[in-house]
Amino acid sequence: MSNDLVFEPSWWLRGPHLQTIWGVLTRSRRMVPYVRERVETPDGDELILDHLPGPPDSPYVLVMHGLEGSSYSVYIQGLMSLISRRGWRATVMNFRYCARDPRNVRRAIPNRTKRLYHSGETTDFHFVLQRTIAQNPEVPIIAVGVSLGGNVLLKYLGEQGSDAPIRAAAALSVPFDLAGGARHLESPVGRIYSERFLRTLRRKALDVARRFPEVEEVMDLSAARSARSIWSFDDACTAPLHGFDDAADYYARSSSLNFVDKVAVPTLCLSSEDDPLVAPGCAVAARSRASSAVEVQMTSSGGHVGFVSGLPWSCRYWAEEYCIQWMEKRL
HSE-up of 236 (CA within 13 Å, CB side)? Predict the structure, then answer.
């Protein structure tokens, strides 16, 4: 397919892997100040929300991070910095067991119940969205989801259809096809990325089992400890812990690819053809299935949540800027 958008990567930062890892290694995790709030959920757990304050009548942005990310992930910090410059308000919803200790942003804060989060879990976002609307009844709400957060956002919008109370949405580097993405990460290079996620996912699953011994009857802890792929970990832990038959069932019921045809809110999906963490061709498949409200835009390069341009000492993160500009036009 021809690419819709032209992105010119930095000449010194060519290739999907350099584009993917540069920001993780070099960007600040403290670009914006937060006001933290702990919110009780209907099931007796808590969500940790990190707010960016602003004028009371300004637009409100709800943001969701990616797999094993948080409000302190560098791409979230970049988005929040752009939002702050516009004088908007925003809230990052940290998925359960993903919020970080502000004194040590590498340390995740455990949640209180015997569950975690996953790519198709939309009830927490619905809860936060409804709460935000109740507190800001006359303000336009927009939403941004990155990677796993983008999958959650698109699935939610598809579930809600024309009832979704959001003005506009943007999803960046989305793994539309979860099964295809998991298999893609079983390649030799893919295992390098997946192992980074698995280190913390294993630790969290074992901690939940330690605090709630009854979940050992549900999860396969031996398989979790030895998991060397996202698929095997999801099969042993994520799926059974959250009521799915197995990883295949989880992926089939959670992939946003199966929901984009029902989205009614103006939505941008921005992907790169060379994304090393996403199954090749899944954005093309999403475009073929998407409703007329969804714009699936692609570039030839950019990696996964990378899209770095400019010089080493003055980098720009093109996709983040494009997403915010696109939504600004729809306010």
Answer: 21
Of the pLDDT bands very low, low, confident and very high (cuts 50, 70, 90), residue 3 is low
- Domain-embedded: residue 4: no
Active site residue 184: no
Residue 88 neighbours by CB under 8 Å, 6+ apart: 52, 54, 58, 59, 60, 61
Give me the number of domains the chain comprises.
2
For the question of residue 309 being annotated catalytic, the response is: no
The CATH number of residue 92's host domain is 3.40.50.1820
Q: Which two tokens stand for residue 62?
A: 């709800």
Is 242 noted as a catalytic residue in this protein?
no
Q: Whole-model pTM?
A: 0.97
Pairing of strands 141-146, 104-108: unpaired
Q: What is the pLDDT of residues 199-225, one digit of tens each?
A: 999 999 999 999 999 999 999 999 999
Same domain, 142 and 275: yes
